Amino acid sequence: MAQHDGSYKLLFSHPEMVRDLLLGFVHEDWVQELDFDSLELVKNSFTSTQLHARDEDLIRQNQVKAGDLLPPVLPIVLYNGAYRWSSAVSVQELIEPVAGFEHYRPHLSYLLLDQQHYQDLDEVSHLKNLVAALFELENSRTAHDIQQVVLKLLAWLTQPEQETLRRAFATWLNRVLIPNRLLPTEPMPVVNSLQEVNAMLAETVQKWYAEAEAQGMARGLKKGLQQGLKKGKTEGLATSLLQLLTVRFGAQPDTIRQQIAQLNEAQLMHGLTQVLTAHSVAEVLSAAASVTEQDDDETDA
Predict the structure, then answer these.
(1) What is the pTM of this model?
(2) Which of 41, 151, 202, 213 is the 20 to 30 A CA-CA neighbour of 288?
(3) In 49-74, which positions are buried (b, 16+ CB within 10 angstroms) versus exposed (e)?
(4) Which domain-ending residue is among 69, 90, 119?
């Protein structure tokens, strides 16, 4: 939680993030009258690129002098929990109403942005809005989904002066989102840029696709063996081998079907065990044909 809060402070220390937050998610008339070029960071806490924080205040920075009024404040809560936000959005709701004390009940409210359940995200997502991209990342569930948003950020954040913002996104992705969402049990390599994050995600996607393919082939092998044994016929094993070869290497011509039809039960069984590791159909059929009748007898024994 501390790293997540620290990374958000780091992200929203950039004027671009505050601008897109106000324009995309604060639906008040006064937002359109703001001069975003005059945005100035007034720190009451500091977050380093390593997500370490320390606190300060306006008075210590001489931003507010004795007798001055405090500046207006817009409290915003960014919530990314899986369950809908159910807490009060006003301090007033937390205080028991007592007759005669109405005048003294605090009236401070905050703007709640529930990222997982934000109703109008689709209306903002098609815009070049960095906070909408942040929400999309929070709602992503796969490496592919995260990578698609990272590619958008790479296309949007191209200016040299945006280097620190690119690095802030990379830090949050590398230290918070990806470890918690995708790789909770695996050590994370240290990356320092969005380009490196994108490369890491691309490798992860490829790895997962390969693992999924292997798992699918393993399930297909098991299913094929079960079908063959259930039928108790060479025809069932031949059908299973042809199906697995089609899944692994694509549709097979009649010549391959004919070669499979010439194999005996032991050869078909051996061919089925080779499909996962072989590099070609020819390699599978060659390995299957190498099983002799003596091998068949030994298997039966």
Answers:
(1) 0.60
(2) 213
(3) eebeeeeeeeeeeeeeeeeeeeeeee
(4) 119
